[in-house]
Amino acid sequence: MTRVLIADDQPLVRAGLSALLAAEPDLEVVGVAADGDEAVALARSAEPDVAVLDVRMPGRDGIGVARELCGPEAERPVPVLVLTTFDLDEYVFGALEAGASGFLLKDAEPEEIVRAVRHVAAGRGTLDQALTHRVLREFADRRRLQPVTVRRGADVLTAREQDILRLLAQGMSNEEIAAELVVEVSTVKSHLARMMPKLGVRSRLQAVVWAYQNRVVTVPDGG
């Protein structure tokens, strides 16, 4: 059972998300917060497997809560899915930099939201498809916090890990990567498990962001 925390300042949204997620047999809503401070307190007491956060909330906003729950200083990291009505780049950048594993707009289909919660809880991460290329291109260009070279990827990763990272950045699932490389799915999972600690990331989405930042892959034009 995946334990979910929901934080949103709008009562109707809180109720809707709670009903949507609680209806799934593998999901349990263990906390519902109306602001960022309450969300942090509930996360510490309820110990959820994933937190679904709005961006604009009283007190600490969703980015601040994400930083608290899954940032580099978090003692017990909680994977975060940011769910918002706003697709402003700064919100997306802030969520990614805070350590969030996913970002979706609230107008996403219900099944997409449910799927995103499962993906984030499982460490896979998700990013609204309408934002992906634009966000990753801009993020890579503006957030160069480390040397941005293909060589850096070669220094950190094995050749097979680089292959898997490139396919991951194309949006492939473990099964699709395994078929492309003619290996077992378990082999792909093992490489991913070894790769992510090397990159200092906790989810597939963060690994993809790292790949774009370091020019291991590039964003196609026109995306």
Kindly summarize this structure in a few lines.
GO terms for molecular function: DNA binding. With 223 residues, the protein is of the alpha/beta class. It contains eleven helices and six strands.
- Please state the CA-atom Rg, rounded to the nearest Å: 17 Å
Helix residue percentage: 40-55%
Unreliable spans: 145-150
Count the E strands: 6
Modified residues (4-aspartylphosphate): 54
GO molecular function: DNA binding
Keywords: DNA-binding, Phosphoprotein, Transcription, Transcription regulation
Domain Response regulatory: 3-121
Outline the fold blueprint.
Blueprint: E1 2-7, H1 11-22, E2 27-33, H2 36-46, E3 50-53, H3 62-70, E4 80-84, H4 89-98, E5 102-105, H5 110-121, E6 126-127, H6 132-142, H7 150-156, H8 159-169, H9 174-181, H10 185-199, H11 204-213
Parallel strand pairs: 1-2, 1-3, 3-4, 4-5, 5-6
Helix pairs in contact: 2-3, 3-4, 6-11, 8-10, 8-11, 9-10
Task: Outline the structure in words.
There is one protein chain. By secondary structure, the chain is an alpha/beta fold. It folds into two domains: 129 residues, Rossmann fold (3-Layer(aba) Sandwich), CATH 3.40.50.2300; 69 residues, Arc Repressor Mutant, subunit A. The protein is 52% helix and 13% strand. It has eleven helices and six strands. Helix 4 links the parallel strand 4 and strand 5. Helix 3 runs parallel beside helix 4, helix 8 crosses helix 10 and helix 8 crosses helix 11. The longest helix has 15 residues. It is globular, with a radius of gyration of 17 Å. The chain starts with a strand and ends in a 10-residue tail after the last helix.
